[in-house]
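sry for the spam today, last one i promise. C-alpha cells for design, 238 residues
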C-alpha cells in the first residue's frame, strides 16, 4: 500500500487522510475499511456480475493478442508506447529522453484492469515479486454509443437530456463544451450537471476561470449496468 501511495502521489501533495494511511495510522485504516465495504455495497454489488463479465472479456482480449501477435504486442497493447526487447519491458518516461526498464525475468505479470481509473497504467515492480500492472481497461462499453431515446432503460430514470449530459462526459468538459455537445443552453447544462453531481454521478473542479465536469466511477458502472440490462430485450446497449 505504501508503494502504491508513493506511486500515485509522486511529485504532488497527498491529502491528510492519505498521509495517515501511509504512516500506518490505525484509525485511518479502520475508516478506509468501512468506506470500502460501504462503497462495494452501494456501487459494485448491484453490478458485480457485469463487472466480472467485463474482466473476463478483457483477459480474453489480451490472451488472443498474445496468441496471434506474440507477447511483445500484447504488452505494448497494455501500455501504449512500451516495447519488449530482449526480455526487458521498456517504458518511455514522460517529459524526458529515456526509458524505464522492467525486467520480468520469469517473475510473472499480474494484470489488474480497472473500469474506474482512466489515466495511464500504474506498474508495481518489487524485487522477487511478480510485476503488477493496473491499467484502464478498454473493454468497458462506450457510453457514447447510446442515443438517449425512450427505449434506453436509463432514460426513464434520469431523463433523456440528463442522460445525454452524462454520456457526453466521456472526458472532462467545461459547461460551455457540454452545452454545445448536448445542444442546450449553458444554464441548462449547468443545472443538469449540478443535479448529477448531487447524487454522486458527476464531479466538478475549477481551474482558474474554467469549470470542468467529469463522470464518477459510479456513473461508469451505472451506464455499463444499463447496457447489460437492455441487452437481453433487444434494446441498444449503453
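last one done:
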Amino acid at each position: 500500500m505504501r508503494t502504491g501511495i508513493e506511486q500515485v502521489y509522486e511529485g504532488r501533495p497527498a491529502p491528510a487522510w492519505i498521509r495517515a494511511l501511509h504512516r500506518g495510522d490505525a484509525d485511518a485504516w479502520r475508516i478506509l475499511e468501512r468506506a470500502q465495504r460501504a462503497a462495494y455495497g452501494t456501487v459494485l454489488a448491484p453490478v458485480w456480475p457485469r463487472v466480472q463479465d467485463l474482466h473476463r472479456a478483457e483477459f480474453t482480449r489480451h490472451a488472443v493478442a498474445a496468441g496471434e501477435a506474440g507477447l511483445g504486442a500484447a504488452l505494448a497493447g497494455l501500455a501504449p508506447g512500451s516495447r519488449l526487447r530482449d526480455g526487458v519491458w521498456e517504458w518511455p518516461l514522460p517529459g524526458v529522453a529515456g526509458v524505464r526498464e522492467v525486467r520480468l525475468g520469469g517473475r510473472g505479470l499480474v494484470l489488474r484492469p480497472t473500469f474506474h481509473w482512466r489515466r495511464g497504467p500504474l506498474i508495481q515492480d518489487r524485487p522477487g515479486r511478480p510485476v503488477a500492472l493496473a491499467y484502464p481497461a478498454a473493454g468497458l462499453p462506450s457510453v457514447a454509443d447510446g442515443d438517449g431515446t425512450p427505449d434506453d432503460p436509463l432514460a426513464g430514470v434520469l431523463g433523456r437530456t440528463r442522460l445525454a449530459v452524462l454520456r457526453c462526459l466521456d472526458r472532462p468538459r467545461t459547461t460551455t463544451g457540454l452545452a454545445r455537445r448536448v445542444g442546450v443552453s449553458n444554464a441548462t447544462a449547468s443545472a443538469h450537471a449540478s443535479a448529477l453531481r448531487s447524487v454522486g454521478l458527476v464531479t466538478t473542479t475549477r481551474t482558474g476561470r474554467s469549470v470542468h465536469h467529469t463522470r464518477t466511477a459510479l456513473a461508469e458502472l451505472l451506464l455499463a449496468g444499463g447496457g447489460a440490462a437492455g441487452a437481453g430485450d433487444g434494446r441498444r446497449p449503453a
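The longest strand covers residues 109-114. ok im logging off now
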